[in-house]
Every structure is written in C-alpha cells, then in structure tokens.
Write a structure and sequence with these properties.
- By secondary structure, the protein is α+β, with helices and mostly antiparallel strands.
- The chain is built from ten helices and six strands; from the N terminus they run ααββαβββααβααααα.
- The protein has helices spanning about 1-15, 20-40, 60-70, 120, 125-150, 165-175, 180-185, 195-200, 205-215, 215-225; strands spanning about 50, 55-60, 75-85, 90-100, 105-115, 155-160.
- The chain has a three-stranded mixed sheet with strand order 1-2-6. Strands 3-4-5 form a three-stranded antiparallel sheet.
- A hairpin with a 4-residue loop joins strand 3 (about 75-85) and strand 4.
- Helix 3 (about 60-70) crosses helix 5 and helix 9 runs antiparallel to helix 10.
- It is elongated, with a radius of gyration of 23 Å.
- About 25% of the residues are buried.
C-alpha cells in the first residue's frame, strides 16, 4: 500500500514538473474569462437556478444545451444499465452522455435515475409515463455532468438532484392526457376538493375561467383539455 501511494505521488509530481507554467497561466486565464462569459449569457431561473444546498447555482438542462451549442459539441447517449419492472412499477436507468466535436469524442458524463426517488414516491404517475420520465431524467443528469466537465464549470455550478422541478413540470405537461386532467384536484376557491372532471360536469364555465386565469401552467393546460 505504501509503495502504491509513493508511486502515485511520484507520478503526480512528474506531471506537475513537466507543465509549461506560462501556458498553464494562459489556460487558467482563458477558463476564468470563459466562466464569466457563460455566467453573463445564461438566464437565471431558466438556464440555472438556486441549488437545494445553497452553495453554488445548479446548472439546468437549457443552460447545458446553450453551453454545448456555444462550444460546437453534440451529445450522444448510451444506456449502460436499466431495470424496467412494469409489474411492480420500478424503473432505473444509468446513462452515459458522450460529447463529440466533428465525430471526435471530447468527454463523457454519467447520470442515473430510478423510480424509488422521493419525488416519484410522493406523486402517483402512470407506470408507462414513469418509465419514460426516469429515462429522460437520467439523460438530463448525464448531459449536465458532461457539460460541467468539458466547460470547466464545476467551481461556479453544481448538479443538484433537487434542481429538477422545472424539468419535471415540463415532463408532466408534455405527457398530460385528458384522463389525467379529469383527475386533477382543485385545492382553492369554491370548488376546492373536487376534480376537474367533476367541475366540468357541474360548472363548465369555471373550467374556462381556470384555463384563462389559473396561476399554474399545468392547471391551465389541463383545463383547456376539458373545454368542450
């Protein structure tokens, strides 16, 4: 064990000794300038958001996509591991995101997601929708992981497993069905406690009102689907 540690220390020292200090200083300066450009170009609460842990901002999917576009990089994905148990409703994916430039591999990132995560346990979802959501979330995490590495952004951004609210809201809206809309419960106003399906039968005009005035985009879309 001691010999192995000595070899590792010696190897690391030799790498440092062979570095061209002037070029290293230039590279670090370029990285810092690039980080500044990125932070100015990205939009708060859309491209990045406050981290759950509060230390650094979390890079979000739209921000990662902008950075990769700026760098001229393309993304490819590979499912490394997967579990799809439709009977018990358990799904797990580990995905590799490979970043390429002109067909040359530059770097890669890994991301995982499974249906036992707290947010999926607390929300009842269609089993087939949950399978797709977990896969997309794993791909998203892998992409952000690869982006943080390739752009040397780990000291200003983090990847927070609690930063997914915006992504999940988009997923819910993309996969919303009329049946899902009918089962949504209203938690405010004179119809509090009733589902949109029940309200549509009793008071169709209120559904129209929700479509126009509900503060939540998801509720607006659901109400729109029930307007006859």
């Amino acid at each position: 064990m001691e010999n192995r540690e000595y070899v590792e220390e010696t190897t690391a020292l030799s790498l440092v000794e062979n570095i061209n200090i002037q070029k290293a200083e230039q590279s670090i300066s370029k990285i810092q300038k690039f980080q500044g450009v990125i932070k100015q170009a990205l939009v708060p609460k859309h491209d990045y958001g406050a981290s759950y842990y509060g230390a650094k901002d979390s890079l979000l999917k739209p921000g990662a996509e902008k950075i990769l576009m700026l760098m001229g990089l393309s993304s490819e994905y590979e499912i490394i591991e997967k579990t799809q148990d439709y009977e018990d409703g358990f799904f797990a994916f580990t995905v590799r995101c490979i970043l390429k430039k002109n067909d040359q591999i530059i770097t890669q990132g890994l991301g995982s997601c499974n249906s036992k995560e707290r947010k999926y346990q607390s929300a009842k979802q269609d089993v087939y929708m949950l399978d797709n959501t977990c896969l997309k979330m794993a791909k998203k995490r892998a992409q952000v992981d690869a982006t943080l590495t390739v752009a040397s952004l780990s000291d200003i951004f983090t990847q927070d497993t609690e930063d997914m609210a915006q992504f999940e809201q988009s997923e819910r809206m993309d996969n919303l069905t009329e049946k899902d809309a009918e089962n949504i419960k209203v938690t405010f106003g004179k119809h509090s406690g009733k589902t949109l399906g029940e309200i549509a039968q009793e008071n169709p005009s209120y559904i129209e009102w929700l479509h126009e005035n509900a503060r939540d985009d998801y509720m607006q879309q659901a109400a729109k689907m029930l307007i006859k």
